[in-house]
Amino acid sequence: MDKKSLILIGAPMDAGKRRQGCRMGPDAYRVAGIYQALADLGHDVTDVGDTSPDPVEIPEDEHLYALPECVGWTMALSRAVQDAAQDGMPVILGGDHALSMGTVSGMAAHAAQIGRPFFVLWLDAHSDFHSPSSTSSGNLHGTPVAYVTGQPGFDAFPALTAPVPTNRVGMIGLRSVDPAERALLEKDQAMLADMRSIDEHGIKAPLNAFLDKVRAANGVLHVSLDVDFLDPSIAPAVGTTVPGGATEREAHLVMELLHESGLVCSLDLVELNPFLDERGRTAKLMVDLTASLMGRRIFDRPTRSF
Q1: Annotated catalytic, 126?
Q2: Residues 226-232: what's their mean pLDDT?
Q3: Which of 106, 191, 225, 259 has the greatest CB tally within 10 Å of its CB?
Q4: What are the helix (H) ranges across the chain?
């Protein structure tokens, strides 16, 4: 197995939605043993601690929740990820999914600097393709894919140096997508695999098709793993539970296939809300999935007791 330099970046962002708790996520991953799990696989692991948002002097928005703070996080995380990507593989410990506005835009800029196409795999129940004007909740954790693909309406946010073409975005696990979001994504040829198609055809086929596309382009792949990709029966620690998610075995298969591809260059772990967890089981599962992504084989898994 190839040894990697893994750089853990804490992003205790809790500004993307009104329900609080995700700020505790980075510490929960640390308590669940993410550093040791990755080091035990032979990787060189560095935990650089927690990032904080840049100070931003823009007015609050009456519709959008915590807009200035979200902009500040986007700026800080984009910079942190670009810096880390020069030295290894950034692993971002979140934090709510709005943090991906910074991490994905930062990795896209890094890919552009090294002259390689950039792809995003979104493992999530939601497509997160709202604009600031179309989100009915005003929660910006539902907007990151729209932002990084250069959709209009994000004037308050930093201008993108490298927008991600929507046809280089793959989404697996979808089961709560607004009709307007789906129409836009299909028009722009994003790869969409909802749980109905996974039930019918399995999770391997759409993932392998997307990975083949990344490989053929010699692409840089960013993976964004939302807790609600998983079924809430195995991962309760998320404020946006949607029944019918990926099983533990399906999720491990995805991670194992990603590892075997050798294509993943950065990873988000998002939407873990330890306040809603049951004795740390969701944090431990997310750590186990990260270990699978980084090379832990099925025979090597620890037995968990809760």
Answers
A1: yes
A2: 97
A3: 106
A4: 25-31, 34-39, 67-85, 100-113, 144-148, 179-187, 195-201, 204-216, 248-261, 281-293
Topology adopted by domain 5-300: Arginase; Chain A (3.40.800)
Q: How far apart are the first and last CA of the chain?
A: 31
> Which of 69, 194, 226, 268 is the catalytic position?
226
Q: Is 228 a catalytic residue?
A: yes
Q: Residue ranges per domain, the chain?
A: 5-300
Identified catalytic residue from 14, 47, 54, 97: 97
Residues 101/268, Cβ–Cβ less than 8 Å: no
Check: CB of residue 99 under 8 Å from CB of residue 17.
no
Cis peptide before 245 (omega within 30 of 0): no
In this prediction, residue 182 has a pLDDT band, given cuts at 50, 70 and 90, of confident
**How far is 91 from 6, CA to CA, in rounded Å?**
7
CA-wise closest residue to 92 among 117, 70, 74, 69: 74
**pLDDT for residue 305 is more than 90:** no
Q: Look at residue 306 and tell me whether its pLDDT is greater than 70.
A: no
Q: Which of 141, 222, 252, 259 is catalytic?
A: 141
Q: Per the structure block, which two tokens stand in for 64?
A: 């959008």
Told to judge if 181 belongs to the known catalytic residues of this protein, a careful annotator would answer: no
What is the Cα 114 distance to its own chain's centre? Answer: 22
- Catalytic annotation present for 271: yes
Catalytic residue among 47, 96, 128, 194: 128
Of the candidates 237, 288, 230, the residue with the CA atom closest to the CA atom of residue 94: 237
Q: Which of 43, 110, 126, 222 is catalytic?
A: 126
Number of H helices, E strands in the chain: 10, 8
Query: Is the alpha carbon torsion for 126, 270, 103, 86 positive or negative?
Result: negative
